[in-house]
Amino acid sequence: MLPRGASSMPPPPNPAPYFPPPRVTLPSGLEILRTFSGAVIFLEILFGTIVWILVASTGVPLPLLQGWVMFVAVTAWFLSIVFLSVFLFGYANRIAVNWNQADFIFHGATFVFYFGAFLLQAATTSLHHFPRKFNSTTQERILSGREYNISIAASV
Questions:
Q1: In whole angstroms, what is the distance from residue 43 CA to residue 140 CA?
Q2: Distance CA 14, CA 24 (A)
Q3: Dihedral (Cα; 8, 14, 17, 21), 10-degree rounding
Q4: Single pTM value for the model
Q5: Cβ atoms of 84 and 45 closer than 8 Å
Q6: From CA 29, how far away is CA 119, in angstroms rounded?
Q7: pLDDT tens-digit profile of 83-140?
Q8: Please, what's the b/e burial string for 11-46 (b: 16 or more CB within 10 A of its CB; e: otherwise)?
Q9: Looking at the DSSP assignment, which residues form a beta bridge with residue 132?
């Protein structure tokens, strides 16, 4: 007979040794370019440069809207280069940060800012047909035909 409170079944095993917590780390050096995160950073730099050039090549008819687009493009481009450099030159191994979480937050914030910039650039593009009055006799469109095409490319 078993003592009171005892059971004939052994206690369940501790699952910690069998299921270790997942640990995903981002590589440093040129190996970062072979990861999904490295490819996304490279694309952010490439497309940020393209947006920067396209918006700068228009006449910037609405500085309030397109100023924010330029700010986002230049800032995200610069921060992407800094973030990629941290991994390329091995500083990620020297700085005690959860790089997986930092990578997720960086790409999430970049997405939010680029999406807002897209909306503002698309709003500028949609105002193409509205006339802008300089005085009572002179009217011209907000965007010329060439600037309209460039603005569409920057929006995309």
A1: 37
A2: 23
A3: 150
A4: 0.70
A5: yes
A6: 36
A7: 999 989 988 888 878 888 889 999 999 999 999 988 888 887 777 666 666 565 666 6
A8: eeeeeeeeeeeeeeebebeeebeeeebbebbeebbe
A9: 140
Reading the block at residue 134, the tokens are 């300089």
Cα–Cα distance between 82 and 102 in angstroms, integer?
13
Phi, psi angles (nearest 5°) of residue 2 = -85, 150
SS3 131: strand
The closest of 34, 27, 32, 25 to 84, measured between CA atoms, is 32
Give burial (CB, 10 Å; 0-12/13-18/19+) of 118: middle
Segment 3-55, tens digit of pLDDT? 666 667 777 766 656 555 555 577 888 888 888 888 999 999 998 898 888 87
* Torsion angles phi and psi, residue 69, rounded to 5: -60, -45
The first and second tokens of residue 65, run together, are: 């809207």
